[in-house]
Design a protein that fits this description.
Order of helices and strands: HEEEHEEH
Number of helices: 3
Radius of gyration: 13 Å
Oligomer: single chain
């Protein structure tokens, strides 16, 4: 059990740090579960890969369509300027997703 707790703490930190390196994204440490809720409204009003970002739904859609990374718009949880991303995946998968997102938003 201690190993699993440590593994998820490492994955949380990996995702939190990786997302925080993307300009316009603010990712605070979550208090529980297997999700982070980074603030992404720094991208609202901008265009990414030809897609205008006006909402967290737009942000989630461009991540899926252009970087092939699935995440949830915060609007689904009453958090309009945020997204939800799970870190309950392998480190390899998380690193690949973060690499794709960093490339998309660079």
């Amino acid at each position: 059990e201690r190993e699993m707790v440590a593994a998820f703490a490492a994955r949380r930190k990996l995702v939190q740090d990786g997302l925080s390196k993307i300009p316009g994204v603010e990712c605070r440490e979550p208090e529980g579960a297997f999700y982070v809720f980074p603030r992404v409204d720094g991208w609202f009003g901008k265009t990414v890969a030809g897609v205008a970002i006006r909402t967290s739904d737009d942000f989630a859609r461009v991540c899926l369509e252009k970087a092939h990374v699935a995440l949830m718009p915060g609007s689904s949880f009453g958090l309009a300027g945020y997204i939800r991303i799970s870190y309950a995946a392998s480190e390899e998968t998380l690193r690949e997703a973060l690499t794709r997102l960093a490339k998309l938003f660079s």
